[in-house]
DNA sequence: TCCATATTGGAGTATACGCTACAGTTCTGG
DNA sequence: CCAGAACTGTAGCGTATACTCCAATATGGA
């Protein structure tokens, strides 16, 4: 089912509309009606290009996550600080989309097996990247230990991100800094 | 509008039904129809006793959280380990209800101001309890530092809990132990 | 040019759900 | 025992939603 050019363009238009609605009105504002109105497209056209509304939403969220990746090529050159920074940036700068991400991961992931697996997989990939970076910085670490630490660190980041999204006065970057192994000043115990 | 005895009993019946449905079918299974059928009650009776479906759900979740509180009297005798343990127990043992809690906190909290404030408040209370316990165990800590640590610790616990709920193979208790300040030489088993 | 295939719009479908109106029944304090 | 308040069940209202159907039209490779 090769696409014609117009179809591809319409697809882009739909994704833009979805992204915009997601950013401005949260996940609640994204109804099929809203998307098709915003994109100037009929419902039939939408379903000619997407299998479901969720597919469009996922696509947008995926794009937002990729946009802050410090090493999109997978060259293995990212540091722990880079990765933490990327996570914090995603949570604070693209906060409307980060909200959606958490709402999907938690709200739907805890209910829907398929989504849960999707979330777990992407989470594990992230854990691996954190663990790799950690080992690159502290070569004395065993892989198992690095993974364990990465897991706890990502959990903490997720929790901090949640706090930040719920309470905008919460300074996520400040707290996230403490998670890094060697803090320049104020040595935090571990 | 003082309640009659029958009304109070009906209320209990509705809460039991809600709790049961919540545990067995998750938040999706809890429709008004399901509740009223399970409780042998008409919709009219339900709304005579509750303002909304949510009220009943909140009530059930609140009860489940209180049930694992290591110091329900607020005597100030709970240790950090107690608090962590209670959190882990809530997440793992009452996992269906913990799921609901997170779904409400995240799914609705990120959308609905009222719910967000509710969640933030209860979160702050928990942070304070963790910080107090931490100070009791390490009297050299300043209140600000204790709070900061408590915040990060709770964030990590929340994140770990999320992992545990998404992936049942994830051993939350194991990871949570690492968060405590002084690990007494990795003693396995409990 | 031809024509198989892709695209389009939007009215219409199916359905689910929270909640209410209301008339009849039960409760309970005095 | 009785008056007024609380309680009860049923029927159905109102609304919102994702998605389908299909006839008409556009596209672009041969």
The largest contact between protein chains, plus residue counts on each side, is: A-B, 36 and 36 residues
**How many structural domains does the protein architecture of chain A include?**
2
Strand-residue proportion of chain A:
under 5%
Uncertain stretches of chain A: 184-190
**What order do the helices and strands of chain A follow?**
HHHHHHHHH
Structural class of chain A: mainly alpha
Average pLDDT over all residues of chain A:
91
Oligomer status: homodimer
The gross shape of chain A turns out to be elongated
Cα gyration radius of chain A (Å): 19 Å
The count of DSSP E runs of length 2 or more, i.e. the number of strands of chain A, is: 0
Count of DSSP helices of chain A? 9
Summarize the amount of helix of chain A as a percent range.
over 70%
Compute the separation of the termini of chain A in Å.
Answer: 56 Å
Structure description:
- 2 copies of one chain form a homodimer.
- With 190 residues, the first copy, chain A, is mostly helical.
- Chain A folds into 2 domains: 5-52, Homeodomain-like (Arc Repressor Mutant, subunit A), CATH 1.10.10.60; 68-177, no CATH class.
- Helices cover 71% and strands 0% of the residues of chain A.
- Chain A is elongated, with a radius of gyration of 19 Å.
- The model of chain A is unreliable at 184-190 (pLDDT under 50).
- Chains A and B meet through α6, α7 and α8 of A and α6, α7 and α8 of B.
- Chain A binds a DNA duplex (30 and 30 nucleotides) through α1, α2 and α3.
């Amino acid at each position: 089912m090769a696409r014609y050019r117009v179809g591809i363009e319409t697809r882009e238009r739909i994704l833009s509309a979805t992204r915009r609605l997601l950013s401005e009105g949260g996940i609640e504002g994204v109804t099929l009606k809203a998307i098709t109105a915003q994109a100037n497209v009929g419902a039939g056209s939408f379903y000619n290009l997407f299998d479901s509304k969720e597919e469009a939403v996922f696509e947008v969220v995926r794009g937002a996550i990729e946009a802050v990746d410090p090493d999109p090529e997978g060259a293995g050159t990212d540091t722990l600080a880079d990765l933490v920074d990327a996570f914090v940036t995603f949570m604070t700068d693209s906060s409307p989309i980060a909200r959606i991400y958490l709402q999907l991961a938690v709200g739907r992931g805890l209910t829907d097996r398929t989504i849960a697996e999707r979330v777990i997989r992407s989470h594990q990939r992230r854990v691996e990247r954190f663990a790799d970076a950690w080992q690159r910085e502290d070569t004395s670490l065993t892989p198992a230990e690095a993974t364990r630490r990465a897991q706890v660190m990502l959990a903490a980041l997720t929790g901090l991100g949640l706090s930040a999204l719920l309470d905008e006065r919460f300074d996520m970057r400040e707290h996230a800094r403490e998670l890094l192994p060697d803090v320049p000043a104020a040595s935090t115990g571990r």
